[in-house]
Amino acid sequence: MKTDIVLSGVGGQGILTIAAIISWAAVRNNMNVKQSEVHGMSQRGGSVYSHLRLSTEPISSDLIPYGGADLILSVEPMESLRYLPFLSKEGWLVTNIKPVKNIPDYPPEEDLIKAIEQLPHHVYLDADKLARDIQATKSANIIMLGAASPFLGLKYEDLEWAIEKQFKSKGQDIVDINKKALKLGFDEAKRLFPDMA
Amino acid sequence: MPVLPLLGDEAIAQGALDAGLSGMYAYPGTPSTEIMEYIQRSPLAAQRNVHREWSSNEKTAVESALGMSYAGRRAMAAMKHVGLNVAADPFINSAITGVIGGMVVVSADDPSMHSSQNEQDSRFYGKFAMVPMFEPSTQQEAYDMARYAFGLSERVGLPVLLRMVTRLAHSRAAVKTVDTPGEENKMHLPSDPMRFVLLPVNARKRYKVLIGTQSHLVEEAEKSPFNKYIDGEDKSMGIIASGVAYNYLMENFPGQKVPYPVVKIGQYPLPVDMIRRLFDEVDKVLVLEEGYPFIEDQLTGLLTAGKVIGRYTGNVPRTGELDPTIVGEVLGLEPKKAFEVPADVVKGRPPQLCPGCGHIDVYMGLNKVMEKYGPGHVFSDIGCYTLGALPPYNAINTCVDMGASITMAKGAADAGVRPAVAVIGDSTFTHSGMTGLLDAVIENTPITVIISDNSLVAMTGGQESHAKDRLVEICKGLGVHPDHIRTIVPLPKSRDRIAQMIQEEIDYDGVSVIIASRPCVTHTISLKRKQRAKQQTNK
C-alpha cells in the first residue's frame, strides 16, 4: 500500500505541520515515510511544496515522479495547480480556495475555480472562512488536512492521535481546537462534494 | 536500536555524535544549516559539552576543526557548497598536513540553485584535495557514512569530504541509530608537529605522503560497503549511479530488479576495478549523477568518448537536478504525466521580503537618493536583502559572493564610479565584509557602505549573528572615521532621514558606514526560543 502526496502553499502557511501530522500517523502504522521539504529562500512568501511518500514497501526516491501522486493537498488555490504534472490520472486535488494575493498579476479567482473543476477528482473549500467560524484562524491548514483525510489511506483516529502528538506541547486547548478543525474540514468536504469517496 | 525520523542533515549530525564528535564548526547556509542546529539541541552534545557554536565563516570553521583534529579529537565542519570556496585554503592544505583526530568536512550542494548563486559540484574539491569522499543516497547512508568517515579519516590520516545535496539534506526518513554512542578521543598533542608546519621543505615531504596514499584510498573504495556491483541480465547497457541519482534509477523499477548491471557509487576515489568490470561487460555505460558530470569526466577524458553517455553527451540534461521523471525519460520508459500546468492561471510567485522588514525601509530611503544617479551604483551581497534586486524595489545591481558588495564598490570607485554604494547584512559583514572595508579605509576610497542589520542570520532561518551589537566598534576599530559611522533605526517613518543620511555620506569624499539596525521581524522570536532551549539542555 502506498500514498504519494504533494503538499503545496505559500511560505508560512503551515504545510510542514500537515506533513508532520500525516507522517506521525503513517509511522504509527509501521509504514515507511519519506518527506522532502523546502527550506531557504523560497520560504519568504514564495511558492513552497513538500513531497510526502507513505508506503508499506521500501521507498526509493525522496521525490515523486510525474503522474505518480495520489493526492495534491494545497492550502492555496493557485499553488494547487502548479504541481499538476505530479498528479496521477486517478489522483485527487484537494485545495483551500482562499487566495494569497502577494503578486501583482494574480489571476481572477473564478478562472482558478474553473481550472480546478476541469479535473476529474477535486475538492475545494474556503478553509480560512471555516477557521474563522470556529475562532481557529491558525488552523486553516488542519481544516484542509481534514478535507483530504479520506484520500490518505490512513485511519481518521490515527490522524487525531497524530494531532495530539504534534500539538501536545502547546496545551490541551490547542489540541482540541485542531481536532475540531480536522472534523470540520472532513464534514464540510463531504457536504460540498458528496461523491468524493 | 533507536529509530529516529531525521532529515539527511540531521542524520549526518547524529552519525557524527555517535562517532564520538568533540567539535562541530559551521557557518549557516542552505542546505547545510540543520546539521549544526541539530547538534545545538542534542542532549548528548550538551552532556558531553561538544563544541557547537557558529563560526564567523567557513574558513574559520574548517581551520578550527583542523585545530581540534591536531589535538587528537574528532571534528566536523559543515557548509553549503559555495562555503567550501571560502574554506578552500584550509581544506586543501589540511590534506597536506594530514589529520590526527578524525576530521569530516560536509559540503552541501544545491543543484538547480534553489537557494544559491551556482550549482557547483563539491566532488571536484574532494578530488582536487585528493581526499576520500562520501556521497549518501539515503538518510540511513548519511548517518552510516558520517560514522564510518571518522574512522576512515583516522585510518588514512586525511580529512574526509561528505557531499550532500539539497534533496537529501531536506528530506526526512526513519534512520536506525546505534544503542551506545562511541566515546570521544582524549586530547593529546601530535607526536610529529612539524607536519603541520607547511614550510616548503616539510610541505614537499607531506605532498609525497599524500600522493603515496592515493592507491590505498582506491583500495578502500573497492572494498567499501557503500560501493556495490549489482548484476543485471541485459548487457546492452550498464549504469553507474551515485548518491540520490541511484534512488531515481530504482524508483523507475518499483518492486523489480533493474535489468542492467549497476554500479552504485557512495565512496570516492572511484573503485577502478569495479568500474572496469562493468565497462568490459556491457556495450555502453550510462552515468547518472547529481551535479556536474564528475564521474563521466573521469571515464571519458578528452579523447575516449563513445562508450560512456551522460550529462556531457546530452543523454542526461547538462544542468539542473535530476528526479525520477528525468531519469525515466533517459531510460526511455513510458511517461506517466496525466495533467499539464494551466499556464494561463498559474503565475510565478517569487520569494519576497516579509511585511514590516527593516530592509524595506533601507531600500525605500536608498531609492529616494539614487533616483537622480540612475541605475548601476549599488553593490549588494548575499542574504534576504538580495531580494531588493526584484520589484518593487529594483534597488541593487550586484550579488556575487559573501562580502563582495564592499570590495566591488571599492573597485568601481577606483574606476571612477561616483557614487559607489554597498548594501550588506550584519552577518555577511562579519563573514567577509570587514577585510574589504579595511582595504577601503587604507586608501580612503569614496564608498558608502550601508549595513542593513537585522541582528541575526535571517535567510537560513534565524541564527546568531557575530555582528550583534558590535558593528560600531568593529567599524571604528577598522579605522572608519567616527564622524562617518552613522546609525539609524529603519522604520517606515524614518525613510526620509535614511535618505538624508545616505545623501550626506555620498557627498563625503571618503569611507562612510551607515548602520541601519532593527531586529528581524520573522526570526527574532524563534531565535530567542532556540537560545532558551539550548540553555535548558545545557543545565
Would you mind describing this structure in some detail?
The complex is a heterodimer of chains A (197) and B (539). Chain A has 197 residues and is of the alpha/beta class. Chain A has helices at 15-28, 77-82, 109-117, 127-133, 140-148, 156-167, 172-192; strands spanning 2-10, 32-36, 47-55, 69-74, 87-96, 122-125. The longest helix of chain A has 21 residues, at 172-192. Chain B has helices spanning 8-18, 33-40, 43-48, 58-70, 81-86, 88-97, 123-129, 139-156, 166-169, 200-222, 243-251, 272-281, 294-300, 324-330, 358-370, 404-414, 426-443, 471-478, 495-507, 524-538, and strands at 3-7, 23-26, 75-80, 103-109, 133-134, 160-165, 171-176, 228-230, 238-242, 262-265, 267-268, 285-288, 308-309, 378-379, 421-425, 448-453, 456-457, 463-464, 485-488, 512-517. In chain B, the strands form five sheets. Chain B has a six-stranded mixed beta sheet with strand order 2-3-4-6-5-11, sandwiched between helices. Chain B has 20 helices and 20 strands. Chain B has 539 residues and is of the alpha/beta class. The model of chain B has no long low-confidence stretch (mean pLDDT 96). The interface between A and B is large, with 52 and 51 residues.
